[in-house]
Amino acid sequence: MRIFGSSLARLDARAMAMPMIDRKTFLIPLALVALAGCAGTGTGKYPSLAIRDIERVQGTFEPVATEQLDVPRVEVTYSGSLQERLSALVGQAEEAHRVFTAAVPEAEQRASAANDAEIGSEAWASAQVALAGLDSARSEVAAALGDLDILHAAGAVQAEDVSAIDAARGKVIALVNIEDATLERLRDRVR
Questions:
Q1: Does residue 171 sit within a domain?
Q2: Domain range spanning residue 116?
């Protein structure tokens, strides 16, 4: 037993006497061997990245004259001239906005009364009815904006001057933005 024990003691002493190999010392030669494997084992002939004959475009292209283009006409039905139609749509939006503005004080009163009310209570239901009335007036303004959008799209497709349509749309969009802000403010009160 003693012989076996002394052999182990000698092995431990030898192991302690040998310098420890740290990771860096071990990994550097390993990385060099891996890089050497990537280095030039090929023939040095790689495929060219130049355009091949099959990839070349052949033929000639003639530009089409704009007179020859067959752009389909977008049909927009309205009576009267474009200016008359724009005036009618802006007038429709402004009238609906007047109805909206007239209904706001009552809706504000009902929304304030429903501020702390429970969902389903009479005050909450009354506020919801008032907000629905405002939504109805706003939808009339939005309908006019939708018609203006159709006119704008039709004019743009036909490459016509749409500046008058844009001006009318700008007026109606401003009304819609005012109404949206009012509705958002009142809905926040009811919640």
A1: yes
A2: 82-190
Q: Is residue 18 part of a domain?
A: no
Give Cα 72 distance to the centre of its chain.
30
Whole-prediction pTM value? Answer: 0.56
Torsion of CA 82, 84, 85, 86, to 10 degrees: 80
From first to last of the 191 residues of the chain, give the pLDDT tens digit. 455 555 555 555 555 555 555 666 767 777 777 777 666 556 667 778 888 877 777 766 676 665 655 555 555 556 678 888 899 899 999 999 999 999 999 988 888 888 877 787 888 888 888 888 898 889 989 999 998 998 888 888 887 888 899 999 999 999 999 999 999 998 888 87
Residue 20 counted as domain residue: no
Contact 124, 104 (CB under 8 A): no
